[in-house]
């Protein structure tokens, strides 16, 4: 009997699928059952050709060879993972296999991983697609019962392929052009450069900001205070200190009158469920987690723990077919500390399932991130996993709670013909805020108003017991945190002045929920931005890069249009050829613009791979395993090949194993270059912080992979 080959994206996912399908016999890089063979990729197994593989003339970086626009973009297996590729290729083309099932992550990149592998293996067999939103056994079984033809996802593949090729064309050409023109290694990207531009723009606003002194006058009565405001402008700031002092003296000891009392009832509906970007924002605000750390944790909760649904989603809604699952999931959460909330929800005769929760039109490839219907064992989670899981559970349960209702009270008191405003808030119904009542309030205590106010009546007389003059300064805009930068990337349209275009860009942010974290990390890695506490700040190199590139290359508008175009391709509304033609025209424009060198901008060369003229290179650490021509040298951030300018991609970043508690220093790099594999290297487990022993392997590109022994 011929078998069906199932290809997953990672070994751990492959093992979970194999367990459900009863594939228990071990083969080389696979698990075999009566009907199925399950194998796996290790992320991307196939990549695009390097420029010099099209033509040897591109080995040396020269401006007269730009732009590099291959007639047909070609692919090849990645050297570091070629062994697993060959295993999959052999299985795909084996006579015992009649068809395939693509079981890579259900999204754009997962589709690309499978299709590139399928193409590079020169396989012609029919394939189907597994599309699931959680890794529970039940979800996998259900997914296999609703397998769809692979052709239904052709548009998703076309979108992924366009994204891959566009990034190559823009990044490769722009990086070479600006590196050659400014004699320093400059990384330029289709998404990373506009993201950097957003950070640089904010930094310039901060640098150019001139703080101004102003004063506020506070009148103090029995049991409450009031702040002076201008009757015409409603402004409380007084820019003249003498005027503020005179006003404070003028009201002291005087009797005033309450001239108006306004009570306004307000309500806040529950927030929407989490998509990945919103979860990353909240975890950055509450726990200080980077976007990448949150993604890693929620991916672990999805793959390893099977406690949450597919995380790389941009939807904040659920679909109608999930109603029965929702009830089951709520019941599974009837454990401490959620049982008190679950009990209240289960008392309801009918769950509220309005458009803010269930909306098929707003569910794209995947629905919002929610807990799965497995009974959670919280004791198995690491401290950080528990924080993220708790955030997802609370958000999920709170949407079934009533509105948060409160009353805002505004009292205006008149003293010697001057008006003073007092504000307070009275909570009427806590509703969904019950889940967040213990959260720390990010308020300036000086500016927060008391919730409770004395019972006052209109025309009631009050005496000014004291007055206070508060000296203040206008504040500069805040630096971006990862939370606020993620919002800016998601809403790229807000940086566009053209109203019609702004509307068009509502669905076209910078990057996707799945890639935004890696874009931020990439900007840090190449030295364009740096973290300072929770804030992100551009470096001098990053500021200068934005100064020299043309508007179109740094504009969120350009990339936002492209992301919208890629989305249109995946929905079958745009031809991929049309998209790629626009990219090729854009690349030609970039090269033309790069000729206009800004001589006033000079980059320091001390932290780059680009050797200065007449500067003696340091001692070589070893031979380059990639190009086999160059020597490996050290700079402040990495180990690199002396032939990098000739196209060699060898790089080992010193902080690449930081999360594992391992420093890639000169001695370690020397050993890796010589041995390629090092055993018994002590480090820590990234999630738990526990001490662990690793085996380190270096691939030809210089990347070091740590595997537990």
Automatic annotation (TrEMBL):
Gene Ontology, cellular component aspect: cytoplasmic replication fork
Basic and acidic residues bias locations: 452-471
GO molecular function: DNA binding; DNA topoisomerase type I (single strand cut, ATP-independent) activity; metal ion binding
Protein EC: 5.6.2.1
GO biological process, one term: DNA repair
Segments for region (Disordered): 441-473
Uppermost EC category: isomerase
Topo IA-type catalytic domain segment(s): 153-591
Residue ranges of every copy of the Toprim domain listed in the record: 3-136
Signal sequence residues: none
Catalytic activity: ATP-independent breakage of single-stranded DNA, followed by passage and rejoining
Record key words, sorted: DNA-binding, Isomerase, Magnesium, Metal-binding, Topoisomerase
NCBIfam families: PRK07726.1 (NF005829), topB (TIGR01056)
Protein name (Swiss-Prot/TrEMBL): DNA topoisomerase
Gene: topB
């Amino acid at each position: 009997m011929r078998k069906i080959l199932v290809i997953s994206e990672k070994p751990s996912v492959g093992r979970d699928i194999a367990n459900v399908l009863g594939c228990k016999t071990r083969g080389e890089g696979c698990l075999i059952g009566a009907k199925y063979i399950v194998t796996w990729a290790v992320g991307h197994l196939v990549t695009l050709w390097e420029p010099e593989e099209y033509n040897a003339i591109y080995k040396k970086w020269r401006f007269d060879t730009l732009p590099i626009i291959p007639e047909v973009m070609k692919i090849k297996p990645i050297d570091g993972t070629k062994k697993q590729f060959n295993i999959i290729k052999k299985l795909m083309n084996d006579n015992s296999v009649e068809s395939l099932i693509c079981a890579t992550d259900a999204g754009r990149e997962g589709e690309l991983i499978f299709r590139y592998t399928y193409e590079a293996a020169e396989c012609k067999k029919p394939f189907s697609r597994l599309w699931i939103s959680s890794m529970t056994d039940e979800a996998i079984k259900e997914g296999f019962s609703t397998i769809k033809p692979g052709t239904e996802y052709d548009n998703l593949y076309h979108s992924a392929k366009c994204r891959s090729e566009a990034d190559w064309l823009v990044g490769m050409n722009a990086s070479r052009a600006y590196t050659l023109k400014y004699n320093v290694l400059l990384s330029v990207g289709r998404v990373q450069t506009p993201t950097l531009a957003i950070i640089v723009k904010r930094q310039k606003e901060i640098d150019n900001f001139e703080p101004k002194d102003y004063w506020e006058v506070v009148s103090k009565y029995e049991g409450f205070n009031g702040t002076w405001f201008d009757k015409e402008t409603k402004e409380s700031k007084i820019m003249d200190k003498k005027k503020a002092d005179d006003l404070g003296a003028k009201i002291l000891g005087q009797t005033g009158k309450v001239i108006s009392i306004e009570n306004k009832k307000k309500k806040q509906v529950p927030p929407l469920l989490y998509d990945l970007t919103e979860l990353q924002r909240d975890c950055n605000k509450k726990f200080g987690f980077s976007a990448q750390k949150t993604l890693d944790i929620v991916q672990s909760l999805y793959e390893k723990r099977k406690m949450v649904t597919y995380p790389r989603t941009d939807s904040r809604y659920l679909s109608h077919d999930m109603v029965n699952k929702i009830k089951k999931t709520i019941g599974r959460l009837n454990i401490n500390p959620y049982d008190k909330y679950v009990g209240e929800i289960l008392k309801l005769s009918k769950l509220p399932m309005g458009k803010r929760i269930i909306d098929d039109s707003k569910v794209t490839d995947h629905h919002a991130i929610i807990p799965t219907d497995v009974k959670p064992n919280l004791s198995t989670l690491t401290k950080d996993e528990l924080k993220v899981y708790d955030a997802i559970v609370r958000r999920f349960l709170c949407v079934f709670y009533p509105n948060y209702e409160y009353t805002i009270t505004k009292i205006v008191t008149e003293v010697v013909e001057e008006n003073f405003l007092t504000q307070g808030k009275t909570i009427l119904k806590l509703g969904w805020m019950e889940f967040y009542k213990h959260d720390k309030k990010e308020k300036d205590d000086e500016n927060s108003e008391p919730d409770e106010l004395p019972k006052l009546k209109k025309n009631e007389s009050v005496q000014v017991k004291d007055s206070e003059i508060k000296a203040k300064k206008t504040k500069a805009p805040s630096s971006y945190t990862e939370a606020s930068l993620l919002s800016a990337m998601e809403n790229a349209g807000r940086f566009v002045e053209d109203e019609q275009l702004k509307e068009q860009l509502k669905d076209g942010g910078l990057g996707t929920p799945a890639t935004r974290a890696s874009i931020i990390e990439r900007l840090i890695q190449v030295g364009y931005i740096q973290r300072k506490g929770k804030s992100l700040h551009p470096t001098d190199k990053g500021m200068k890069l934005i100064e020299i590139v043309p508007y179109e290359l740094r504009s969120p508008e350009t990339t936002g249009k492209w992301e919208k175009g890629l989305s249109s391709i995946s929905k079958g509304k745009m031809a991929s050829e049309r998209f790629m033609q626009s990219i090729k025209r854009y690349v030609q424009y970039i090269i033309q613009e790069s000729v206009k060198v800004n001589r006033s901008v000079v980059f320091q060369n001390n932290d780059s791979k680009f050797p200065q003229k007449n500067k003696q290179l340091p001692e070589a650490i070893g031979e380059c395993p990639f190009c086999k021509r160059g020597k490996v040298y050290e700079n402040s951030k990495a180990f690199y090949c002396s032939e990098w300018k000739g196209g060699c991609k060898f790089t080992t970043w010193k902080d690449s194993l930081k999360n594992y508690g391992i420093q890639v220093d000169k001695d370690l790099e020397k050993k890796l270059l010589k041995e390629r594999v090092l055993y018994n290297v002590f480090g820590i487990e990234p999630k738990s912080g526990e001490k662990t022993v690793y085996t380190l392997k270096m691939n030809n590109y210089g990347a070091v992979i740590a595997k537990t022994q």
